[in-house]
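$ ./design --mode recover --in tokens.txt
reading tokens...
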């Protein structure tokens, strides 16, 4: 893989019992950051904090060969309604352990020990990358600007997730 930029096709999922797309600050921020960095938001949805609804949206996108990456925001905390990690992890072919670890390390610099309440997770399902970020705009910015921006950039060295796509 050379040093040419490859635009990635991304689906965005907001998990919330209270937000709609028009007032979805975190989802709107992610959409803006994705576009700013040259990628395409191919679909977007807002679903309630419900494991079946989350999985139905994700299954639709992992079955769609045009979707390469799914990013969710919300539902990664510790309350009874926070079920995004459980929904995602049941669908993984492989878990990307380092994503949650790295996210919490970066988040620690901004929120201190409160980062332990985040269950950010990532994995691969049907040759599609899945990333579950917390619901706050700051957490979404941290996840994108410090991790995903680089790992979804085909020019990032020494390695990136895009160069692995053909071999998934």
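writing sequence...
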């Amino acid at each position: 893989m050379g040093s040419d930029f490859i635009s990635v096709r991304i689906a965005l999922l907001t998990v919330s019992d209270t937000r709609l797309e028009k007032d979805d600050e975190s989802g709107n921020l992610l959409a803006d950051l994705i576009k700013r960095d040259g990628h395409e938001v191919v679909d977007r949805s807002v679903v309630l904090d419900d494991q079946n609804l989350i999985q139905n949206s994700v299954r639709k996108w992992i079955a769609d060969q045009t979707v390469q990456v799914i990013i969710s925001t919300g539902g990664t905390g510790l309350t009874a309604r926070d079920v995004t990690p459980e929904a995602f992890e049941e669908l993984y072919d492989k878990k990307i352990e380092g994503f949650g670890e790295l996210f919490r390390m970066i988040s620690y610099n901004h929120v201190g020990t409160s980062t332990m309440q985040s269950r950010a997770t990532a994995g691969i399902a049907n040759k599609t990358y899945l990333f579950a970020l917390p619901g706050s705009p700051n957490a979404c910015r941290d996840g994108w600007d410090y991790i995903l921006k680089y790992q979804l950039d085909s020019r990032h060295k020494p390695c990136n997730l895009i160069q692995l796509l053909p071999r998934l």
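exit 0
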